[in-house]
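Example 5.3 — Methyltransferase domain-containing protein
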Amino acid sequence: MTVTRELHAYYEQDREHARLREGRNRLEFWRTQDVLRRTLPPPPARVLDVGGGPGAHAEWLSADGYEVELLDPIPLHVARAGELTGVSARLGDARRLPVPDASVDAVLLLGPLYHLQERADRVRALAEARRAVRPGGLVAAATISRYAAVHDTIYTGAYLDERQRQAAQASMADGIMLSPARGFTGYFHDPEEVPGEFADAGFAEVERYGLQGAFGLYGDVDDWLDDPERRALLLEAQRSMESVPSLLGVSNHMLTVSRRDR
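Solution (predicted structure tokens):
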């Protein structure tokens, strides 16, 4: 991923450690876990978690019995992930994976693609993942929806601020996100772009999953997530419509999965 000075400063605030563990972002976490548990090869398989941050997903993957190596360009993230039981962590770039060809069973790109603003870099990261995974192995990549910034700023009320409103509208027009308030820089995909990037990286077919759906925009979603019984129903409801093409862009995050065919 491209670590600009602004993005490095953003992640060095240690925001990512808690992001998926609290509030409505837990829906993204649990839905990602739900999709991966259905699509990953069974443990003990070797998983390369590229751009895995401080290890929110590496932690449960290791607990499930996977052999997990995490790569991330932020030293703080690598230090945190390295403290997790069963997880090895080191600095790395999604475009130049420091692993041999066909050496892992699955590659996760749960952060890099939305920090690579140039399409050539995103295709290169996907091609590197394909190189690293064994034939038949899985590659899963997360992307942020082209409409996520407008959704989020309306949800939080930040859309009332002119600079944030303009940034959100600009990202919807061309995908380039430059947040004036948070220092977050990235690329937000139109859902229909993603299969083409996978194809150019050498993948034949993809499966697409909307993670949060419209439920991530509900004002009372925290109440559902706090209650295990209601949470299970919420996850089941989104699972029932997770791959409906017309609904993919409503999810702030999408997961695209493919397998190396040879």
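Remark. The chain is about 40% helix and 20% strand.
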